[in-house]
Amino acid sequence: MICWNAINVALAVQSFSLLSEESSILADISILLSRLRNVSVHHSPRKGTGVAHSLAQFGLNSTVGGVWLHTTPFCVLQAVAEDLSSSDFQ
Question: What beta strand segments (E) does 1-90 contain?
Fold first, then answer.
């Protein structure tokens, strides 16, 4: 499952017009997704994607690669705590 927090993007990938400005990008995404088995595109509200957003930002700002074994990066711990404190888990 692929989730986007931008509902317009999720809907556009699911069905797009060949006449739209972004049709070539959406067509490429659609072709790449069709090569994967059992893939579906869904919208996820930003409230539930804090950890993924944190990891994406960490990756964008990182100058070196990394692997974490038996430890969790602080940015992930912080994002999990924020997600839990703002969710219905309480």
Answer: 2-4, 41-43
Contacts of 90 (CB under 8 A, 6+ apart): 84
What is the bridge-based pairing of β-strands 41-43 and 2-4? parallel
- CA distances to 5, 8, 13, 32 from 26, in Å: 16, 12, 6, 10
- The DSSP code sequence of 39-54 is --EEE--GGG-HHHHH
19-55 pLDDT per residue, tens: 667 778 878 888 888 888 887 777 767 666 778 888 8
Is there a contact between 44 and 10 (Cβ–Cβ < 8 Å)? no
Would you kindly state where each structural domain of the chain is located, as residue ranges? 2-43, 49-86
